[in-house]
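Supplementary notes for students who missed Thursday's class. We covered one full example, reproduced here. Read the sequence, then the structure, then the short commentary at the end.
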Amino acid sequence: MPLTVAEVLEHPAYPHVIWDLQPTKKGKVAIANGRGGPFDIAFEVHGSGPNHLVWVMGLGAFKWFWQRQTEDFGHDQSSKYSCLVFDNRGMGESDKPIMRYTTSEMAKDTMEVVNHLDWTTRRELHVIGISMGGMIAQEMAYLEPERIASLTLVSTAAELKSTVGYIENLRNRINILIPKSVDVQLDEVKSRVSHSWLSAPDVDGEFPTNGDRFAAQEITKRRDTNGFTRRGFLCQAVSTVTHKKNAEQLRQVRVTVGGSRIQILHGTIDNLITVPHAHVLYDRLGGDAAGVTKTIFEGRGHYLPWEERQKFRSLIEALVEKVQAL
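Structure (token representation):
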């Protein structure tokens, strides 16, 4: 049986569920002057290598949700990679302005953070975006394609064709803010991850299962009532529902970025953004004929960087190496 919320909180591993990965650089950048700002985006850079990786997080998640990848690239290979992780507007340590959020505006936010780091040369940015972050990554590639060295789109969509399941999920995640139902709501969130991974022994530490560690991170986030707020979550949610990149826009991305620089990753049992969305995105980007690659993970859900950590790492490494030869 999975641990209850009370059991997770009492577990000796709980205080260490967020890893103590010390950044090379951290801070806040005032952005969006003239775009409804200025407001601050909190960021960290891990590693000091020449390959600049920009990790764009999804809906309702904090920058430390990338901690596995931060460790794999920014610490284990710190002389080869520099990893930018940050809290999107509305989450974590970043400001939470009340306004309409769009993925296009959030892409501009990200570019301003990147500019602050002086990562401004041609084909410098290896952009990896998951879910809402994948939508933001599409917008980055559409707005400034010449700066994109590679583009990895994970568990994401060109647009949400059918939002019934997605909106239901948003409702469930908002409801998790009600303490008395947190165990039930955690079950709903965990339904987005493959059962085989959740039930396996914890690969990262001392919890009984991966699912218990997953729950511990969710609980940690939701206990941060300054970082995880209803208004921030809802503002981000609006951006996902209104995101759309049509066939012509993605054809332009393929032409200007280059299809061989783009890969799509998705799980077959992702019930948040279902796998047909990956096929639509792939087709709009030109598919195999354009050099775009698509990797579909059988029996995996929405959280591929957790569920397939080693394979995910290998695919990122391979794409970075591939584009260096282009």
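Commentary. The longest strand covers residues 39-46. Residues 103 and 135 are 6 Å apart (CA to CA). If anything here is unclear, bring it to office hours.
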